[in-house]
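The pair is quoted verbatim below.
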Amino acid sequence: MRRPPLLLIAAVAACAVDTASTPPDLRILIVGNDMGPHLQNVSLSRGNSAVTSALVTVNGVTLTETATGHYAGSLPTFLAVGDTVRIEVIAGADSVTGVALIPMVPSLTTPGNGALIHIPTPLDFSWIDTSNPDAFRAAIVFDGTTEAAGYTGATRSGMVVTSRIPPTAASVSAYLYAYNDGVFTGAVHPDSGMHVRQSGGTVSLLIGQ
C-alpha cells in the first residue's frame, strides 16, 4: 500500500492543531434591533453565548433584559434627526460605548400608495436621501411576513422579490428604512452595529392580475 508523503501528513496535523487551538472571540457583539428616535432594542453576545445580566443604557436610560441577552426600553422623548444615540454596556470587567446619529428621513418615491404588485416580477423601489447613511432596507410586508432587501448608503434604488407572495395576500404594504451603524470603543466585536433606523414611510400596495 502506498503511503502518503510525510510532509502532507505533517501539514494536515498542523492544520488540525491550529484549528483546535484557535480561541473564541470573547469581545462583546452588539446587534441593534429597532434602535431609533424612541424605542431601543439590542442583543448582546460573546463567544456565541448570550450576555446576560449586563448593565445597558441608552442616552442614560437603563434597558431591561426582556429575554436572554436581549435588552429593551424607550427614551422619555423622541430624538430629532441628527441627534446622538449613545449606548453603554458593562458586562463583567468589559465595557463598550457606541455612538450613532439619527438618520435623515428618506423619501420613498417608488412605489407609490396603491401601486400594483405583479407576481412574480420584482417590485422596484427608489428613494431620495442626501445624508448618505450606512445602509437602507426596502421591504414588502404581507400577512405577517416580510420580503426585504438591504442596500448600501450610497444606493438610491433597488428591488424586492415578489415570487413568494401569494396572490391572495391581504394587507400588503411597502416600507423603507435608513440605518446608521455607529462607532464603538472598548472590548467590542468588529461585527457590531447599532443599526439606528429612521423610517421613510409606508405605502399600501395591491396585488395586480
